[in-house]
Amino acid sequence: MGQWWQGGAIYQVYVRSFMDSDGDGVGDLAGITQRLDYLSWLGIDGIWLSPTMPSPNEDWGYDVSDYLGVDPALGTMGDLEDLIAEARPRGMAVLLDLVPNHTSREHPWFQAALRGPDDPHRDLYVWAPPGPGGGPPNNWLAAGGGPAWTLDPSSGQYYLHQFLPAQPDLNWWNPEVGERFDDILRWWFDRGVAGFRIDVAHGLVKDALLRDDPPASEDDHPMAGRHGLRRVYSANRPEVHDIYRRWRRIADSYDPARVLLGETWVFDPHQLAAFYGDGDELHLAFNFSFLFSDFNAPCLARVVRETMGALPEGACPVWTGSNHDVSRLVSRWCAGERSRAGAALVLLCTLPGTVVLYYGDEIGMADVDVPVAEARDRMGLGDPEGQPPRDRARTPMQWEAGPGCGFTSAPRPWLPVGDCLQVNVADQREDPGSLLSLTRRLLSLRRDGMIPTGGRYEEVAVGDRLWVYGVGEATVAVNLSDEGAPVELPDGPLLVSSSPGALEDGVLGPWGAVVVGRPS
Q1: Which residues are catalytically annotated?
Q2: Integer Cα distance of 94 and 98 in angstroms
C-alpha cells in the first residue's frame, strides 16, 4: 500500500502509565525505550505518544505551555531523541500528540494576550465582547457541558475555551497562528518525529461571526448532539481543510513522508471522508462512529459498510476500540467479559486499513475503579457519583503480577493499578491461548499479507449474531452473541481462532471469531 502507516499497526502509549524508569510512580520516555523490544515482538509499526510537551497538566499535557520542548516529568529532549533512535532499527516510527486547537493559559502567548486588547498576541486567541445582558457572547458549550467562554475582568472581554478555562482556543482566522504551527511541524519533523496525531482536528476553525449552535435533533448521533447542541458553528467549519492541505504539503516534503493522523470527532461518513480530501489532506482519520458503535454485528457492519462506501479511492480507514478519552474496549464493548475481547481484537486487526491499539488492549486490560480521592482528571466530565471517567482507562500498564504490576517500584503510582494478578503481560506471553498471543498472531499475519490490510472488503453475511466478511483472499467470521452460530466458510486453512475450539462442526461459538485463508 505504500507508506508504513497504510495498513500498519499503531500503538497508543499513555506515557505516564506505560513504564516508570526512575521509580517516581510516573511513566516516562526512558521507560518506553526500555519496553521497545516488547512492542517489536508484538508487531507494532508505529508508536503514538500521548502529549510529551511541557504543560501545567490541568488536562495532562493537552494544555501545552511550550510546543518545542519536553515535559520534565516525562524526561528530557535527549530521552525523546533516544526513543526515536532506538525505535528506528526495530522498524517502528514515533508519533507525537499535537494540540493546535488551544494552548495552556500559562503559554507565553496567552500570558501576553492578557495584557490587553492592544497587545499583538491578543489576536492569536478568540476574544469577544459580552452578549446581550452582559453574559457570554453566544451559546457555545465546552466539552464538559458548561459555557465555552470565560470573562477576563481586566478587559471586559470573554475568551473562548472549548475545554477547560485553562485551555484558551487559538484563532485560526489569524494567519500568524498558521505560520507558527507550520514552523512547529517542521521543527519536530527535522528531529525525526514520524508524524502527529492531531488533537481536536475537526475543531480548529470556528465561525467567524460566532453564530449560535443550533439545537440537536433526534436524528443526530448521540455523541454529536451531546449537551443538546449540534456543533455547526463552534467546530466542523469548512475552512479547517485549508489547514490540512497546507500541512500535507509540509509532511509530504520529507523523505520518508511524515504522517498526519486526525482526531476527527465527526459521525457522518461523508464528513469523515472529507478530511482525506483528494489525497491532499490528512493521511489517516479516526472513525468515532466505529469506536462508539454498539458491539453487535448489525451496528458494526453498518458503520464499516458506510465508511468503506464513503472514503475516496486510495484513502486508508482507521479502526480503534479504545483510547485515553473513553472506556476501554473490554469494559465498554465487552461488558467487562474478557472472553469477548478476542472477537473485538480479531475485528480490529482484520478490517482493511490501519489499526490503532491502546496500550493494554492486547492483554484485555479493563477499566479500573479509581476512587474519587485518587482521581487526576480535571476535565469535569464526572459520572453521577462525581468521579471523572477518564482516569479509569489511563491506569498503569499491567506488565506482571505483584506490587506495582511491573510498572513501577514506587509504593504509590500516579494512578492505582488494576488486577495484575489476573491480567498481565508476563503470564499471557507464555500462554499460546491468551489474548496477547492472539494479537501477536493477528499482527504477524497482517505484516505477512495473509490478512490483507488494503483493497477489497466484501460483506458476505450480517445477521443478529454473525458477521462474515472477506478481506482480500481471507474470510473473517465473528459471532457477537451469547449463542453459537452456524457458519459456512471457504475450505481454506484456519489462520486464526479467537480461542481454542471457537469453531467446531460448522458452528462458531459464543463471542468466537476465526480467519480462514484462501482455499488451496
Answers
A1: 199, 263
A2: 13
